Amino acid sequence: MTAELDVIGFGNAIVDVLTRTEDDFLIAHGMRKGGMTLIDEERAETVYAAMGPGVEISGGSAANTVAGVAALGGRAGFVGKVKDDALGTIFAHDIGAAGIAYRTAPAQDGPATARCLILVTPDGERTMNTYLGAAQDLSPADVDEEMVAGATVTYLEGYLWDPPPAKEAFLKAAGIAHKAGRSVALTLSDAFCVDRYRAEFLKLMRAGTVDLVFANEAELKSLYETADFDTALAQLTLDVRRAVVTRSEQGALWVSGTERVAVPAFPVAQVIDTTGAGDLFAAGFLHGFARGFAPAESLRLGALAAAEVIGHMGARPERGLKELAQENGLRV
Question: Which residues form the Carbohydrate kinase PfkB domain (predicted)?
Answer without folding.
Answer: 56-316
